[in-house]
Amino acid sequence: MEQTLIIFKPDAVQRGVVGEILSRFERSGLKIVGMKMVSPDADHYYHHYETIGKVVSRRGQEVFDNAVSYVMGGPVIAAVLQGVEAVDLVRKMVGPTEPKSAAPGTIRGDYAHINYAQADKLSIAIANLLHASGDSDEAKLEVAHWFSEAELFSYKTSHEHFTQPE
């Protein structure tokens, strides 16, 4: 089974929509194997966004600085989800990074509305509720960065009886 990282960003936590969104992942058959609320420091986010995600390299220093400022605006909830092709499923459910481009029915399409032009005009990060690992290699690095082995759990859900018969 594949694991992926999601981070409920400060806007999701502050709006009180974490449970509602998390239930969408659970209803799809994904299993929560780790979860915690944290307020990481700038070094933790540097490792996440640049060492792993290469944001400065791909998008520039201003985008990186805005992203770090945004996620440090309050506590976040990090979770590890597990399931069949979990990374692709979560990415499909979350929708594109820009909420304006996200289709209705996706999490960003249903819960966010800002676009790149507005964020750029205000020199802020795009408030899009969640981070979701981009691919399976990134997911492995992110899970290891945010969670120790002792913080991840193994158990069988009733859904797994249908997707992984013994």
Structure overview:
This protein is an alpha+beta fold. It has a single domain (2-149), classed as Nucleoside diphosphate kinase-like domain (Alpha-Beta Plaits, 2-Layer Sandwich). 48% of the residues lie in helices and 16% in strands. The chain is built from ten helices and four strands. The protein has helices at residues 10-15, 18-27, 42-52, 55-59, 61-71, 86-94, 107-111, 116-122, 136-146, 160-163, and strands at residues 2-8, 31-38, 76-83, 130-132. It has a four-stranded antiparallel β-sheet with strand order 2-3-1-4. The longest helix has 11 residues, at 42-52. The radius of gyration is 16 Å and the shape is globular. The two termini are 14 Å apart. The relative contact order is 0.23.
Give the SSE layout:
Elements (H helix, E strand, L loop, with lengths): L1 E7 L1 H6 L2 H10 L3 E8 L3 H11 L2 H5 L1 H11 L4 E8 L2 H9 L12 H5 L4 H7 L7 E3 L3 H11 L13 H4 L3
Antiparallel strand pairs: 1-3, 1-4, 2-3
Helix pairs in contact: 3-5, 3-9
Give a brief rundown of this model:
This protein is of the alpha+beta class and 166 residues long. Helix content is 48%, strand content 16%. The longest helix is centred in the first third of the chain and has 11 residues, at 42-52.
